[in-house]
Amino acid sequence: NAGVTQTPKFQVLKTGQSMTLQCAQDMNHNSMYWYRQDPGMGLRLIYYSASEGTTDKGEVPNGYNVSRLNKREFSLRLESAAPSQTSVYFCASTYERGLGTDTQYFGPGTRLTVL
Amino acid sequence: QQPVQSPQAVILREGEDAVINCSSSKALYSVHWYRQKHGEAPVFLMILLKGGEQKGHEKISASFNEKKQQSSLYLTASQLSYSGTYFCGTASNSGYALNFGKGTSLLVTP
Q1: What are the tens digits of pLDDT across the range A48-59?
Q2: Euclidean distance between CA atoms B20 and B6, whole angstroms
Q3: Which of B30, B49, B98 sits opposite A45 (nearest CB)?
Q4: Closest to A48 in 3D by CA, of A60, A39, A38, A58
Q5: Could you tell me if B58 lies within 8 Å of chain A, comparing CB atoms?
Q6: How many CA atoms does the CB half-sphere of B68 hold within 13 Å?
Q7: Which of A3-7, A94-98, A102-106, B83-87 has the lowest average pLDDT?
């Protein structure tokens, strides 16, 4: 039982390049989330998927797109990377559809630098 | 809307106690607490629900004042392993978004 896994762990991009961050969970969770973490800012929600087949914008969705490929996988795509997207990206999941009463499990993070 | 945490940072000697506070301007359904060590992912500590239910580690205690939209995390007899950044996350009655505070950095020294 690996929990929540993310690939890659580290990535360096040039401005304008595109990439996809992958996230998978093997806990049969219904909801999945993408956060970014910047120094002194805490965790900010980018997008979430309350259940398979649905996605919704979070607090900071501009410049990102997501795909809930199936129940296990939730990917985050940067179409044209910008230096402002330099951050640590965390994927998380919960069994419950929604965050009110359920523990959130985080992946190890992807550290992205955009030059 | 992002909850406000206080203090921003605290330094303790091993064995001392600390309280970390989290407040919101919105009515809350639940408050979540996580701890993050440098370079690692946040780890679940506790959930406090409207109505009084709590889920979490036995050695961690916290309170949730629904009327004041505030929560406090109590760290007693601190150990070196308690060092890290503590985040509160709040969920309101509407939607699925969990809003995290900016974090409280805790350092426990020998």
Answers
A1: 998 888 999 988
A2: 6
A3: B98
A4: A58
A5: no
A6: 10
A7: A94-98
Nearest CA to A84 among A67, A65, A64?
A: A64
The whole-angstrom distance between A81's CA and the closest CA on chain B is 23
Residue B105 contacts by C-beta under 8 Å, 6 or more apart in sequence?
Answer: B8, B9, B10, B84, B85
Note whether A103 contacts B97, CB cutoff 8 Å: no
- Distance (Å) from the C-alpha of residue B78 to the closest C-alpha of chain A? 23
Each residue's pLDDT tens digit, B70-109: 999 999 999 999 999 999 999 886 556 788 999 999 999 9
Tokens representing residue A1 in the block: 């039982």
**pLDDT per residue over A25-43, tens digit each?**
999 999 999 999 998 888 9
Q: Is B52 on the interface with A (CB under 8 A)?
A: no
Asked if A110 contacts A6 with a C-beta cutoff of 8 angstroms, the reply is yes
Q: Do A100 and B49 touch (CB under 8 A)?
A: yes
